[in-house]
Design a protein that fits this description.
This protein has about 375 residues and is α/β, with parallel strands linked by helices. About 45% of the residues lie in helices and about 15% in strands. The protein has 13 helices and 13 strands. It has helices at about 10-30, 65-80, 90-100, 125-140, 150-155, 185-195, 220-230, 250-260, 275-280, 295-300, 335-345, 345-365, 365-385, and strands spanning about 1-5, 30-35, 50-55, 85, 110, 140-145, 165, 205-210, 235-240, 265, 285, 305-310, 325-330. The strands form 2 sheets. Strands 3-2-1-4-5-6-7 form a 7-stranded parallel sheet, with helices on both faces. A 6-stranded parallel sheet has the order 10-9-8-11-12-13, with helices on both faces. The two termini are about 15 Å apart.
Length: about 375
């Protein structure tokens, strides 16, 4: 049996991005899979045969318990003798890369799903987070980058050399499970969700799904929709997800959004209902300042949604400009307003772009194809270091 340990800071990352891959490795490639993250008593309920959970208390953000976490990981790695230790998310990647190197793990795989420092334009914060990112990269023996544009950005910015990193297939951490995004169900799901939230059937609905926070571009999204709302009361903005660091959102904009009848906040919805929410939308808006890739963009595309997408490294890979979506610059409200007006005024083109978006997801991001390519990559890593 091959042994792989996935390390992330919190369990939500495992549930969202890694569970399907873990099941596939156990079922199809005879792996024993271990998960390591901060304590979550619920995670064990999600595990199947051949999957194990090792809790290691650690925090997101700036933390002063790093040395303790590293030494605990080192002891576990020495005991378990994993063939691969794979890590993602900032803190877990730094700790695990150091601990795995200290423990003599041959295959230290950094799944590079974005760089936190990219969200800072300069100054001390950017310097600190970039330094920590470079340390994780240096301690890793292999780097799997989530998108081609992020790969090129990282090489140019000196994070790692080209020969150390690669993108698997067309990128993405886990692809799209197409059987969950059935277009035959879209009309039914659309009608139910719109009825639930009082959204007229003829409204053009711009939407978001995920964390509601500044770095996802929500100041710009609220400001742009506010501009649209001044002259068009038929359009809607559907915000799906929980608040995260909500104090980073402009207070005046946020208060306007909460009191505007044409803006709908749903809160978090179950994972198996996300596709229903996409179905209620017409255009998906991701105005993020930094992304490793942009999974929500291709999930929305799988339900036939074109996008309004910032052209930041990583996310820019998720659309073909003016074919499956409209590309805008981050922090640029005017271009977002123009894109919204385009979709409102060109309903036929909106539909055509959504159809092409679905087609490209089928061709480039089918999870079944991606998981096999990811598994083959792990098998090759292990075989090369026997």
């Amino acid at each position: 049996m091959k042994k792989i340990c996935f390390v992330t800071t919190i369990s939500l990352t495992i549930k969202t991005f890694l569970m399907d891959f873990a099941e596939y490795l156990v079922r199809e490639h005879e792996y024993e899979v271990y998960f390591m993250c901060d304590t979550d008593h619920d995670l064990s309920k999600h595990l199947k045969e051949g999957m194990h959970y090792i809790p290691v208390p650690m925090k997101r953000g700036i933390s002063f318990d790093g040395a303790k976490v590293i030494m605990r990981m080192k002891k576990i790695f020495e005991c378990e003798q994993f063939d691969i230790v794979q890590y993602a998310t900032p803190n877990a990647s730094l700790y695990a890369s150091i601990a795995a190197k200290m423990a003599g793990v041959k295959n230290r795989l950094y799944t590079h799903w974005g760089s936190r420092y990219m969200g800072y334009s300069g100054g001390l914060c950017r310097f600190i987070f970039k330094t920590l990112e470079k340390a994780a990269c240096k301690n890793s023996t292999i780097i799997e980058t989530e998108s081609f544009s992020l790969l090129e950005y990282s090489i140019k910015d000196g994070l790692y050399p080209r020969e150390k990193a690669s993108v698997i297939w067309n990128g993405s951490a886990c692809g799209v499970k197409l059987e969950n995004y059935l277009l035959d169900n879209r009309d039914e799901w659309r009608a139910k969700v719109r009825k639930q939230y009082g959204i007229p059937e003829d409204s053009v609905v711009f939407g978001w799904c995920g964390r509601i926070t500044r770095d996802k571009g929500h100041n710009e999204l609220f400001e742009a929709f506010c501009e649209i709302n001044k002259t068009d009361k038929s359009a809607r903005l559907l915000m799906v997800g929980d608040y995260d660091n909500i104090e980073t959102i402009d207070k005046e904009l946020f208060e306007w959004a909460k009191t505007c009848p044409e803006v709908v906040f749903t809160g978090r919805v179950p994972f198996d209902k996300v596709q229903n929410m996409y179905s209620a939308m017409d255009v998906f808006c991701s105005l993020s300042y930094r992304e490793g890739f942009g999974l929500v963009v291709i999930e929305a595309a799988a339900m036939g949604l074109p996008g309004i997408i910032t052209d930041v490294p990583g996310q820019v890979d998720t659309i073909e400009p003016n074919v499956t979506g409209i590309s805008v610059h981050d922090h640029d409200v005017k271009t977002v307003v123009d894109a919204m007006k385009f979709y409102i005024n060109h309903p036929v083109r909106l539909k055509e772009m959504g159809q092409e978006a679905r087609k490209q997801v089928e061709e480039k991001y089918d999870q079944k194809v991606l998981l096999e390519k990811l598994a083959k990559h792990r098998n090759e890593i292990i075989a090369a270091n026997k």
